[in-house]
Specification:
Length: 186
């Protein structure tokens, strides 16, 4: 599925949902968790939507992969530091997959009477993420980031780190779509 590369969704939503990507664990020299680049990009876009489109509640989704704080708590701190009021931040801190984010996140949304959301995730991940939330009964307005476009030049066919990373993302998403369909999650 293709998504338009526009900053503001054409349709309205009752909340913004941001899924966690990488969150780095504490280290001896940095004794706190911090958002990885993909998570931070998603958060920045969510904040931008909040400030320039609709000041609606923002749900952050992401559990813990270790003994440190859940990803959603780290994301909550970033949103607060960007000026999003604490009472408009909803936290789903148990999920460790997109499927679980949709499952647990939709429960939080429904308890607040929210059934239509703007979903923030990379364009390549949007088909699986949106299908997961739709399967959980939530209408999704895509608000994708980080579009990948071919320039149709020699660099598109020569092997380089960017192409290798893009191929890895593509394989991950295709395998994820197949796995989610087999499991009945989408």
């Amino acid at each position: 599925m293709w998504y338009e590369n526009v900053p503001i969704p054409y349709e309205s939503a009752e909340a913004i949902v941001i899924l966690a990507g990488a969150v780095h664990s504490p280290t001896p020299t940095q004794p706190y968790t911090f958002a990885g680049q993909d998570t931070y990009r998603r958060l920045r876009h969510g904040v931008w939507l909040f400030k320039h489109w609709k000041s609606v509640p923002i749900l952050v989704c992401g559990g813990s992969f270790g003994q440190w704080a859940p990803a959603a708590v780290t994301m909550q701190h970033v949103l607060e530091s960007e000026g999003v009021p604490a009472d408009l931040i909803l936290v789903e801190d148990h999920s460790i997959s997109t499927h679980e984010s949709a499952k647990y996140g939709s429960d939080i949304l429904r308890k607040r009477g929210i059934s239509r959301v703007a979903l923030v995730v990379e364009a390549s991940s949007m088909p699986r993420a949106a299908a997961s939330f739709r399967k959980a009964g939530i209408a999704v307005i895509p608000a994708p980031i980080r579009f990948t476009e071919l320039d149709f030049n020699i660099m598109d066919v020569l092997p380089n780190w960017g192409a290798i990373a893009l191929n890895g993302e593509t394989v991950h998403e295709l395998a994820g779509l197949v796995w989610y369909r087999l499991r009945g999650w989408i």
